[in-house]
């Protein structure tokens, strides 16, 4: 299933030169903080002392989830196709922010529970109209899993073949915080109480019901596979409790890393996609830029598990790729300081080792 991915760590060839270049900019050592680690990471990924993030693209994967039948979201499933139309017509948060930064937006239907009309911004790669309700049966077949992964791979290939040099990923799918929490529980071996959060705005009772649905679903899957979840491989985990848009995004992240291009991770759901991708190929993590820390409860512990240093913390709890696009100006600034800032030598400024 995942044999196509053999992801190498970014090159270390320029590590010393990159650090030297960053340290010799006209600023106190380390003073540009997170921008310095971003510039270093981009330089490693692009194997260059100058970096280019001038051709970004936002790809939003959309899909529906059978498990919403268990009452795990505040909103009805119809909102998924309605929001996809809103993305296409420029009215969603991610659309507005992409327009602000002149970043092209592509929406990919991998499993929306509605027939969608053709639209230039829409890629139609529907695997099915929704996953199965995984509290009752496996979420998907291995064939469906493969189609979801390949949808992500194909969209990334398409973008990179057209010169894109920075990818940003987002998602839309009512119920997908439940799916993400369930995947996180299985991937990290934690209690569902620790991974379930409010999503679109559940109250405490709703969150504890969501945790119960997750616990029941994982028990069902353990019984059906005859294996404790700690022993599931990536394929089993995805088939049992995955979501189409989350797995398409994982495929996209893996392909982006395979082709040595950095990608921006949005909030909680995207971080779970990365955690899954990391189970397939650990080095994928090194190509990820973390946009922000979401207000979804489990995002902080997930970011810690990924050793991630997010750029922003704005109390967002939206998804769609909204945090990813908001972080783009900072990523641009990281590239610009590395490329264009003067060095102590070129600007004739005295540096600081005279003590
Ligand atoms: C109008 C609206 C726009 C959204 N845009 C993103 N999401 C976000 O909320 C959903 C996940 O939350 P839950 O698991 O609680 O359903 C996802 O679709 C996510 O992208 C939205 C949700 C709504 C209602
Ligand atoms: O952080 C996220 O990705 C998120 C949080 C709440 C709702 N939808 C998405």
TrEMBL record:
Q: Name one GO biological process term.
A: cobalamin biosynthetic process
Asked whether the UniProt record includes Transferase among its keywords, one would answer yes
The record lists the catalysed reaction(s) as: 5,6-dimethylbenzimidazole + nicotinate beta-D-ribonucleotide = alpha-ribazole 5'-phosphate + nicotinate + H(+)
Listed InterPro entries = Nict_dMeBzImd_PRibTrfase (IPR003200), Nict_dMeBzImd_PRibTrfase_bact (IPR017846), Nict_dMeBzImd_PRibTrfase_N (IPR023195), Nict_dMeBzImd_PRibTrfase_sf (IPR036087)
**Alphabetized Pfam families for the sequence:** DBI_PRT
Any one GO MF annotation of this record: nicotinate-nucleotide-dimethylbenzimidazole phosphoribosyltransferase activity
Which terms are listed as keywords in the entry?
A: Cobalamin biosynthesis, Glycosyltransferase, Transferase
What is the role of the protein in this entry?
Answer: Catalyzes the synthesis of alpha-ribazole-5'-phosphate from nicotinate mononucleotide (NAMN) and 5,6-dimethylbenzimidazole (DMB).
Q: In which pathway does it act?
A: Nucleoside biosynthesis; alpha-ribazole biosynthesis; alpha-ribazole from 5,6-dimethylbenzimidazole: step 1/2
User: Can you name the source organism?
Assistant: Marinomonas pollencensis
The protein depicted here goes by the name: Nicotinate-nucleotide--dimethylbenzimidazole phosphoribosyltransferase
Matching CDD domains: DMB-PRT_CobT
Where's the active site on this chain?
A: 320
Family membership, please give it: Belongs to the CobT family.
- Give the organism's phylogenetic lineage: Bacteria, Pseudomonadati, Pseudomonadota, Gammaproteobacteria, Oceanospirillales
Give the EC number(s) listed in the UniProt record.
Answer: 2.4.2.21
């Amino acid at each position: 299933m995942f044999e196509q991915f053999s992801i190498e760590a970014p090159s270390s060839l320029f590590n010393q030169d990159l650090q030297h270049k960053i340290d010799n900019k006209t600023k106190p050592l380390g003073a540009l903080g997170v921008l310095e680690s971003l510039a270093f990471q981009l330089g490693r990924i692009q194997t260059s002392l100058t970096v280019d993030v001038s051709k970004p693209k936002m790809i939003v994967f959309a899909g529906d989830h059978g498990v919403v039948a268990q009452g795990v979201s505040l909103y009805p499933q119809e909102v998924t196709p309605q929001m996809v139309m809103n993305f296409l017509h420029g009215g969603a948060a991610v659309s507005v922010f992409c327009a602000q930064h002149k970043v092209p937006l592509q929406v990919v239907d991998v499993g929306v529970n509605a027939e969608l009309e053709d639209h230039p911004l829409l890629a139609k790669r529907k695997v099915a109209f929704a996953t199965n309700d995984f509290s009752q049966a496996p979420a998907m077949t291995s064939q469906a899993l493969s189609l979801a992964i390949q949808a992500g791979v194909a969209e990334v290939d398409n973008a990179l073949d057209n010169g894109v040099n920075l990818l940003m990923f987002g998602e839309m799918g009512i119920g997908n915080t439940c799916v993400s929490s369930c995947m996180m529980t299985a991937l990290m071996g934690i209690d569902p109480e620790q991974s379930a959060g409010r999503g679109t705005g559940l109250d405490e009772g709703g969150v504890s019901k969501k945790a119960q649905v997750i616990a029941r679903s994982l028990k069902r899957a353990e019984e059906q596979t005859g294996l404790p979840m700690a022993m599931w491989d990536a394929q089993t985990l995805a088939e049992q409790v995955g979501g189409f848009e989350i797995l398409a995004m994982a495929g996209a992240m893996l392909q982006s890393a395979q082709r040595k291009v950095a990608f921006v991770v949005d909030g909680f759901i995207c971080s779970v996609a990365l955690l899954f991708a990391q189970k397939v190929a650990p080095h994928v993590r090194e190509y990820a830029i973390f946009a922000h820390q979401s207000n979804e409860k489990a995002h902080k512990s997930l970011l810690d598990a990924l050793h991630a240093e997010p750029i922003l913390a704005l109390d967002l709890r939206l998804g769609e790729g909204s945090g990813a696009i908001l972080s783009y100006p900072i990523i641009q600034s990281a590239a610009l300081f590395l490329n264009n800032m003067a060095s102590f030598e070129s600007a004739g400024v005295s540096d600081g080792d005279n003590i």
